[in-house]
Amino acid sequence: MSKPADQPPPSDMEVDAAAEEKPLVRFSINVLELMREAQMQHGLRHGDYTRYRFLHIVFYMAERAWSHAMEKKTAGPNAQQRIYMLGRFRKAVKWATLFSHLCSLKGDSRTSLEAEAYASYMKGTLLFEQEKNIEAAMTNFKNTRAVYEELGKYGSIENQLLCRQRIEEVEPMIGFCSRKLGGSALQAHELLDLEKEGPAYDLFKAKIEAVLSETRSQQAASMTEFSWLGRRFPITNAKTRVSILKAQQLEKDLNGANTESVPADKKLGIFDKIFSAYHDARSCIRNDLASAGNAENIRDELNGLDKAVSAVLGFRTIERNQLLVSIAKSKFTKHRDEKNEKITKPEELVRLYDLLIQNTTDLTDLISSGRDKNKEENTFIQEYELKSLAFRAERCFYLAKSYSSAGKRAEAYALFCHARSITDSALQQLTNSPDKALVQDLKALSDSCRSNSFIEHATGIMEEENVPERLSKGVSTLSLGERKEAFLLDMLESYESALGESNTKTPCHIARFPPPFQSVPCNPIVLDMAYNAIEFPNIENRMKKEKKGLLSRFWG
Fold first, then answer.
1. Rounded CA gap, 428 and 315, in Å?
2. Average pLDDT in the 172-178 region?
3. Terminal alpha carbon distance of the chain
4. What is the pLDDT of residue 180?
């Protein structure tokens, strides 16, 4: 048996080639600290060099080969890199098998069992990637799951959680192998279920997507036309067919029987994928339009298909925004939800209903743009005009809520009454409508408008009754002197509020700004009052007299 510690070091050329692959990556390792920690934790604290030399080194060699293969896997390898990736997986299987053998000889029963599960997982991963013996891959994954199920029943809580996590990573791989062997097609929502974190999920996300793309391509070969509101539009472009088929499969998952149990965030994720698929289809259609030239027949067909796809895109946009409204309404009546998020303000619902009104207007305008409309199109337009009316009533209701929260009773009362009138008008037009859910929602909205209008009316009357009392209180505090406003910094010793009333938008009085002028003492002014009263002595005799010459005397 060869010893892994005696492997020859790589040559300088190999080191240089490895360094040239990723010249920008720089790793920082505290070598001495890492060496000391590894030696103390793995045997050398008690002088057990055998334990340090074999088991841990072999295990890390397997992990090293596996991580290198996963790096190539996530980077999307080409044919040559795939061969290299499979070689690294084989190396990982080799080291994992050796590790399992050594643990069976030197380790206790639990260590041996865990090492066996680790080796089975590595073998299953290699067979899974090779796609040659899926049955053997599934057998290895099942062995791994069985071991971790047993180990998860014992030990500490942390160990049980680790085993549970490993089982959750292996389960989708077993399911994929089972479907591969049974020949059943994968559904699109199963791909969404695999979007989790963990190396095991990274292993076959690309494979799942490739299988789905292959399945869609096979199904798209038989898809020759697209139906919408009683009209059929031929599809000649293969990419357009695949994109539309992908969107339709996602729509089936969104409107299936078990959608009630699907969380809202996952539904929003499905909507995003639907929009992406339809946008791809519309892009292909418009590329075909650009290359169609002057062939009127083909251009008419492509224009009709583009209009139909755009209409479906608008229809799904309305459904998504309605989902956002339901999420916002669920948080509207709560003070605080479980995840400590902020409550929904009525202004946010007003904005969402603005979007819905715009969406319905755009959709009805798009469908009405045709010259000859059939019965299905006319029915659809009438239905969404009534929905637009219902959205207007909801918007008016939450706009009234916004005014109510600001203390504007008259405006809120008027808006509640207007929302009720719009709701009653919509209910009269929906008398024979098959959409019972919309009728029930509008009846509940009408009742809410009626009760809220009564509340606003009563609250406004109560506030008006308190006006004389507030007025007399205000008059009693009037004075002819200068009015002084109370600021927080001026009354720190008293417990008086510096805030305005809760239903008004008066500013808070914290401190005066700019600060008022304050009187300060000025410098003294000195006046010399005795100067004019003093008589100074004559000092002319002390002054030096100027001497004159002969000529100056003569001329005088």
1. 25
2. 83
3. 144
4. 76
226 SS3 class: strand
Contact 52, 59 (CB under 8 A): no
Torsion angle (degrees, nearest 10) of CA 164, 168, 173, 177: 80
By the 8 A CB rule, do 267 and 323 touch?
yes
Number of domain units in the chain? 1
Which residues does 263 contact at the CB level (< 8 Å), separation at least 6?
A: none
- Domain residue limits at 51: 31-217
In a 10 Å sphere around its CB, with 0-12 CB exposed, 13-18 middle and 19+ buried, how is residue 527 labelled? exposed
3-class secondary structure, 339: coil
Contact present, 95 and 66 (Cβ < 8 Å): no
For residue range 352-401, what is the model confidence (pLDDT) as tens digits? 999 999 999 999 999 988 767 888 999 999 999 999 999 999 999 999 99
CA distance 248 to 309: 11
pLDDT band at 198 (very low <50, low <70, confident <90, very high): very low
The pLDDT value recorded for residue 215 is 64
Structure tokens at 143: 């062995």
Is 51 within the bounds of a domain?
yes
In a domain, 41, yes or no: yes
Alpha carbon distance 186, 251 (integer Å): 15
- Stated pTM of the model: 0.57
Rounded distance between C-alpha atoms, residue 462 and residue 469, angstroms: 12
Check pLDDT > 80 for residue 2: no
Q: What span, in angstroms and rounded, lies between the C-alpha atoms of 467 and 479?
A: 20
